[in-house]
Amino acid sequence: MPKFYHDDEAWADIAPLPQDDGGLHPLAAISYSDEYSEAMGYLRAVMAKNEYSDRVLGLTEHIISMNPAHYTVWLYRANTISEIGRPLQDEIAWLNPTALKHMKNYQIWHHRHTIIDALGSADGEAEFISSMLEKDSKNYHVWSYRQWLVKRFDLFDKPEELEWTHSMIESDVRNNSAWNHRYYIVVGGREGKLSVELAKQEIGYTQAAIRKAPQNQSPWNYILGILRAAELPKSTLKDFTCEFADVQRPEEVYSSHALDILADIYAEEENSKENAAKALELLATKYDPIRANYWNYRKGLLDQPNIAA
């Protein structure tokens, strides 16, 4: 049932402020429901009075249920919580089911940042995130929030964080968000630099994942990122990439991504430009023809000195 405030004695002292759409005959007035229009009128009135109270919290909750993307309502709710000293855990308890109803709402996540930051604790957030990812394992908002938690509470070196990321990759080796989060933990927590020893561990880990799904681009991107962070050459992967691509056996290519890396490796080797050209030709004509122009462009670069494919 719609909820109205004009016949509620608790709001008898408030005269709602109507929205100014630009005169009596606005050019493009938005057709709000009567319920929403009235609730916003009361919110404008309490905002004009700088009122912060329990009834204002109830009002914002009502409006959010109708329009969870209204940033101003969320901001005023956050200010009200701060002013009246509402227990932050109570706000999280209300926010959890609200977030599950509106999983891709920017304002909800910004509000959660504000509350958790003020609370100063990430307790319970891992469980909440898991419940969100059960519904959508690649929800950008959830993964972005997880990264914020890691940075805010310095969780980079917590073994539980890496173990959780591993479990997400085990569940779906093609989950690019999980690979991205792993990179954020491993590399981001070390200011973009890796020791050779740690890099070798991550390379071994990623190679095992690639063998499960050689045409999955996510771990290939990850392993190249690890090489850059450790300042290791792509040739480190030469023997491994040859497991999935061999220019001498063009019918037995199991990963276009391996072929791409091999092209770069051959281009950097002396007397291997011909093999680099073969790899790029295979990509252009057989294994990734949709990007033929790109591969042919790379092939043309082989004729220029000191430029990798």
Question: What can you see in these coordinates?
Answer:
With 309 residues, the chain is mainly alpha-helical. Among the domains are: 1-86, no CATH class; 238-309. It has 15 helices and no strands. Helix 8 (159-171) packs antiparallel against helix 9 and helix 13 packs antiparallel against helix 14. The radius of gyration is 28 Å and the shape is elongated.
Low-confidence stretches: none
Q: What's the rounded overall pLDDT mean? A: 93
Helix content: 55-70%
Based on secondary structure, the structural category is mainly alpha
Number of helices: 15
Radius of gyration, whole Å: 28 Å
Q: How would the global form be characterised?
A: elongated
What's the total number of strands?
0
* N-to-C order of helices and strands: HHHHHHHHHHHHHHH
Distance between the termini: 65 Å
Give the amount of beta strand, in percent.
Answer: under 5%
Largest sheet, in brief, is:
none
Short description, anyone?
Belongs to the protein prenyltransferase subunit alpha family. The chain has 309 residues and is an all-alpha fold. It has 15 helices and no strands.
